[in-house]
Amino acid sequence: MNTVSIRELRNSGGEVIARVAGGETLLVTRDGEPVARVTPLPRRPASAEVLQERRRCLPRVDADTLQADIDDVLDPAL
């Protein structure tokens, strides 16, 4: 886990928060000793309506074509 000092957090708070928003968890230290952990918040689940809309935007997949593509890639001896 990466660390950040309290001084760095104070002086570059926006950059530190951007790192956390990007998924990084940081250990905050004071005089080299850990005092806190900053972690990203869990993502909110999408509503059923949002998921249905996303699904509508996906390309249609033909099961036979998909199986043929998989068969072309995988060794049939496996």
From TrEMBL:
UniProt-recorded name of the protein: Antitoxin
Family, per entry: Belongs to the phD/YefM antitoxin family.
Signal sequence range: none
Pfam families: PhdYeFM_antitox
InterPro entries for this protein: Antitoxin_Phd/YefM, YefM-like_sf
Function description: Antitoxin component of a type II toxin-antitoxin (TA) system.
Organism annotation: Nostocoides australiense Ben110
